[in-house]
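All the exercises in this workshop are built on plain-text protein records. The record below serves as our worked example for the rest of this section.
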Amino acid sequence: MSKEKELNVSEALGFTDDLMFQIVMRDPEICRMFLNEVLPHLDIQDITVRTQERIAFNQEDKVSILDVLITDSRGRRYNVEMQVAHKADMDKRARQYLFKMMEDGFLRRKQEYGELHAAYVIFILPFDPKGKGLKRYTFVYTAKEDPSVELNDDSALIYLNTKGTKGEIRPELDDLYRMIEGKPTSN
């Protein structure tokens, strides 16, 4: 009599599978740890997580479906996307997601501009979106004439490139990259 092997869902699907990614990222503690690896300077504590969040503000708007939408206790918003296919319009997709998150956080009457909350769009990519070999690409608004001058609007687009070989990332984030690539991890 042969023993039937029990199906290991995580091995069968892998982290990059849409369903698996949602299941893992629904856990607030996992999301919080992930965000603190990507944005350690923010010291993120309490968060609310929603997956497959549909955003459209009127009937004419294109509906944007955000993989994981996270709000922290300070009102900062984070969109985390697993993008496995390299698409030519990814930069514009990232801008659309950022805009939708910002639009949802517009100020109300009597609020000051300083009350606008930060917004971050983070793409996890098993490919190099810019071909420069960087492990991480962080895009913020800068002056074209002098890139050292940043527009401090508290927003960023971040591409995490699991194929990257250049640049420094935190060890735990490197472990995530290795897991996505099917390589052994230190943890």
